[in-house]
User: Fold these one by one.
Assistant:
Number 1:
Amino acid sequence: MGVYALTGGATGIGAELKRQLVDQGHRVITVDIKEGDIVADLSTADGRQLAVKGIRERAADGLDGFIPCAGLPPVARPLSLIASVNFFAVVETIEGIKDLVAKKRGTVLIVASNSAPMVPTDDRFVQLCLGGDEAAALAEIEQRDGHTAYAGSKRAVSNWMRRNVVDYAQAGVRLNAVAPGITRTPLSEQVMADEELGPAMQQFGEMVPWGGTAQPEQIANVMRFMLSREADFICGSVVFVDGGSDAMLRPDDF
Ligand code: NAD
């Protein structure tokens, strides 16, 4: 059976994915700010180092997969925290354990969002993220809004994945992303409770072609398959698990 490492394993999609992988007999190493094998705040440089070190100690023989799932909603404040956790921590942890995943010819599955295409790649914040300048990206996002911080960081992480597919494949790592639609977790509950973004999210949920919102297992089921050896020719894909909402908004793009 395999060995996986997962950030954001305390609640929501990450907790459900962990449950499913463990049920299948895999070992799962979790990192989270709340609870887990490694308790670390991924918004900080120290926390990221602690996470990478902790995973390396526990999986010295290599990883079958890594899932940087920890994320903050568009209502989190300060806005710079969203960029730190949703983009910079994802990239830094992946880079920190790339060789461990390569050892087993394993896979990294990023958690993007169906909101990622809502902010263009040429947006200044997205460009600063992709340029790797954390201080400049954090300063920029403080002047913007929660939607741009969230969707922009998910756009950037999707772009980062696509841009690194060739290098990582050559190193023996299969990179992909899953792009969930609205999923019933503590994160979406926080957005639903927000005076401004709550009604917009509610309205969006009502427009989803296949109906409503997802439960965490509907996202984790697909993630578990993408991580499996059965899916080992899926490489460089952003898989939308969103009830058709991205196709509704961008029918000619894929
Ligand atoms: P969640 O809030 O249940 O889970 C997020 C996890 O990340 C929590 O366990 C939390 O403690 C952890 N976390 C937050 N900040 C952290 C930090 N600084 N350091 C370490 N851990 C931290 O939410 P979820 O909905 O399960 O989110 C999982 C992923 O799915 C996120 O990346 C989110 O952006 C993405 N996503 C969620 C939805 C949705 O509607 N729920 C839609 C699209 C994408």
Number 2:
Amino acid sequence: MTMGTERALRIGITCYPSVGGSGILASALGEELARRGHEAHFISYERPFRLPHGAPGIFYHPVAISSYGLFKYPDYTLPLSVKMAEVSRDCGLDVLHVHYAVPHATAAILAQSMLPPETRPRVVTTLHGTDTTLLGRDAGYGPAIAFALERSDAVTTVSAFLEQETRQLMDIRRPIEVIHNFFEPHEPRRSREEVRRELGIGDEALLLHSSNLRPFKRIDLLLECAARIRPRNSFKLLILAGADFSPFVGDVGRLELEDRIIVRENVSEMEDYLQAADIGLFTSDMESFCLSILEAMSFGCPSVAARVGGIPEVVVSGSSGLLVPPGNADNFARGVEKLIADPALRASLGAEARKRARELFSADAIVTKYEQLYRRVCALPRG
Ligand code: GMT
């Protein structure tokens, strides 16, 4: 297929298929590439959970993992690289685009090396966060990550913060391009009123937190903040949990928040809930971007969030949300109270948040950058 004068591309995409920003972003990218006439070939141990079924141009190639008596730990990297090489050869992939370096970038470099030079796909590695900020510091991973980054045909990060952090931590000198995350909302299936009715929301403000509940998301601080918001009956907090919430149920009881907290686990109709929310609340200690804030912004919902990592690239405090110093429940509670008490401020921050999301972080703005990058690496001489 050709697009104008340019031919359609065949892109292999590898990501973690489970709930997490990097997998969500990779799935959305594949969906948008297919909509633009390219082929997106997902290679992973499971089908990414947000990937639409039956859409033209989207393919899924499972990686089978065997367990052998000799192995104490099952190995994923080698079967992944073999599958990457096989799909590259059989489907004529132009690019292997891996999301999250560990172990995907190493597997892609190995896959590339296993193929004859004339059929080698280019490797694009997108760093998402802890693949360098955490694992990059780990002596058992750091050198392999640095090697795969140096060997990739292009490396991108989802924020300028992550680019600087990666350079400093890993002593990387090669070019790294910043391509921010994007979010392209689907049409909600239910109305805002219907969803608020389901959640039992009356005049209260509906606060929203969505995450995979990992330790750096600071769910303890989120709940502590909820316990300190006054008046107590001015809000309810909806937690869209991408993981089992039961470890936190004890804290909800201890803080006497049973009537304030609503939990929904692993929802697939994100947009239904995003459109129903009034204020996002994100207490993370670290985020290279925080896709959940962007998802809320797309529906005109401003967030109170920690001023950490790449979040200030997403939210301009006082204009499209409120950023507060991290780690202190009172800071978050005062920010939320301010927005609950001032609907006009909430509306103006929300309008600016939606505008910023559309102008800077839409598929139109971002996917085009990936397409240009793919074409640029495809023009490189094959190594
Ligand atoms: O890096 C991680 O810990 C996991 C990763 C994920 O898969 O959710 O999160 C990172 O990537 C997201 C998508 O680009 C970003 O929105 C998150 O901010 C980022 N997390 C961290 O930097 C801690």
